[in-house]
Specification:
With 237 residues, the protein is mainly α. Helix content is 62%, strand content 3%. It has 7 helices and 2 strands. It has helices at residues 26-68, 76-86, 104-114, 120-140, 150-170, 178-191, 205-231; strands spanning 5-8, 15-18. A two-stranded antiparallel ribbon has the order 1-2. A hairpin with a 6-residue loop joins strand 1 (5-8) and strand 2. Helix 4 runs antiparallel to helix 5 (150-170). The longest helix has 43 residues, at 26-68. The radius of gyration is 47 Å and the shape is elongated. Residues 1-21, 23-31, 33-37, 58-63 and 65-76 have low confidence and may be disordered.
């Protein structure tokens, strides 16, 4: 069978448009194209779905690995590493450094490298990670009932005071200073707030009565002596 053709003459030019499919087969050709297009769409949809599922799985695995990583904290060992890094090479200090201990130069190098000088921020860092951390660990090793017994904590308290004084002297910062005072206030409010204070308690009632009654009894005696001496003209007894 021959293919059907038609003729259109726009602008007086004869153009022949031919249908490549014979009559009766046009519907089948169109149906075949639609079936192929539908199959392509289904395949594309499945591929996009698998791609989204794969990306979601990868993102979830990455999030789980990030969540499983422990947080990084700055503590005693990190401060020691900072000191080691600061003292690894010789550096010229632009400020005076104390020489009360053999570690003064290490403290000064750390402040020079990370803070630009012996600032209060540098002093706070050194106190927190070199003095307070040791004191808090030592107090945690004791029973909380022993915190109020001075003989158990006096050595730890003295070591803390000596540590703060040593670092302050190395950085040529006056001691005591507001930062050190605030440090000890925080310690007292944390460890010793529940300890009874016997020095501020009232004395026994017997002592209070004796202190009150003694002046009252002495007043009549003094008055009597004055009257007796007044009766004698020369004041002799």
């Amino acid at each position: 069978m021959r293919a059907s053709c038609c003729f259109i003459e726009p602008s007086c030019k004869k153009v022949e448009i031919c249908n490549p499919y014979p009559p009766g087969k046009t519907d089948r050709a169109l149906s075949g194209k639609m079936t192929a297009t539908s199959s392509s769409l289904v395949f594309s949809g499945c591929f996009v779905t698998l791609l989204i599922w794969g990306c979601t799985s990868v993102v979830c695995l990455v999030d789980e690995k990030l969540a499983a990583q422990p947080p990084t904290t700055i503590g005693y060992h990190s401060t020691e590493m900072m000191i080691a890094n600061a003292t690894h090479g010789e550096s010229a200090l632009s400020f005076a450094c104390g020489n009360t201990t053999n570690r003064c130069m290490e403290y000064c190098d750390l402040c020079h490298s990370y803070y630009g000088g012996p600032t209060m921020d540098c002093l706070s860092t050194l106190l927190n990670h070199l003095c307070l951390s040791n004191y808090e660990n030592a107090m945690a090793s004791l029973n909380s009932n022993d915190w109020c017994i001075w003989s158990n904590v006096s050595g730890l308290y003295s070591n803390l005071s000596q540590c703060t004084e040593e670092i302050s002297d190395c950085l040529v910062i006056p001691w005591p200073n507001p930062l050190v005072e605030q440090t000890f206030l925080n310690i007292h409010s944390r460890f010793f707030k529940d300890c009874p204070s016997e020095e501020l308690s009232d004395p026994p009632p017997v002592i209070i009565f004796a202190l009150v009654i003694t002046p009252i009894c002495l007043i009549p005696v003094m008055v009597s002596l004055v009257v007796l001496k007044t009766k004698n003209g020369d004041g002799s007894s």
